[in-house]
């Protein structure tokens, strides 16, 4: 017999109220987001193809570390708290995966390159990420960075502003098919490869390069259609073909848009893209500005995309921009503190929440673009500030 019937009744009422309003721990569904950071795979020590650009043998860490030697007294003096690590080392990548997941980053988008008939900068993915002992904790997908290689990476030459094409990003149809078949077999079939509704996600960076290499709009559309069909033949329900959203990719001189009110949308649909995101704010915004002002423009751009296009757009947030480590001068995003970066993340979260029918995928530039000063990795200026901002918004506050 209960000696405190009123206490019992109160307890039962509280439990009933919690159940009714979905407040018990068992009834609350934790919402999760896919936070995908672009990963630039140039910080490796075991790829001989990097040596022509960075002869010291540690990839583009060379550009980061000798900045003050090349430009004495320059304001840019960043240092990685983890040191100039070899990201093609599985032990190093294991540590980075742990830190990424801990802070809410659960997808890496690898910048992926193919030049001169073979892959380039692939060791960070193959030897680092895929051989890490905790690689099953994260997903990854590829962004084909099919731009030309000029003298930008080589600090001994880029000061002369000679845009000599060392390797072209253009590929023929035969080369295109070789690339696609290789990626389907080598990467798409891996359990870690990121998929939406079972469809592997594949992002393409530079459409003019692809179109010119394949011979025109019609030929590019046919090649991309073939790519989707090959992906289906491999056992997938389809291919999530993702466009890098920036001005050079949205139209082409060889496309007749006279029969539609929105030629940009018609152009994208003809090529078969089903979704898009951005790679960097610098592709559509004036980045020589205050970060909060840039975010106002970003929000307006997202609203424009929602109105002008009928594909799925996944919101993108960049940490910042300053590529003076390569050249000594640059447009510079100002006031991009972790607190202001957090405001951008909340903006992206609100966009994702307002589009509940699409996967809550948010892309970030980037995990490690040190020489463009747009990285999440901890440094001597903000420590773990950017990573902690992601953790606060997408881990701590949605438990």
Automatic annotation (TrEMBL):
Q: Does the keyword Membrane apply?
A: no
Signal peptide from the UniProt entry: 1-22
Q: Does the keyword Transferase apply?
A: no
Pfam families (UniProt xref): Glyco_tran_WbsX
Provide this UniProt record's keywords sorted from A to Z: Signal
| InterPro entries given in the database record | WbsX (IPR032719)
What name does this protein carry? Glycosyltransferase WbsX
Q: Which species is this record about?
A: Chitinophaga oryziterrae
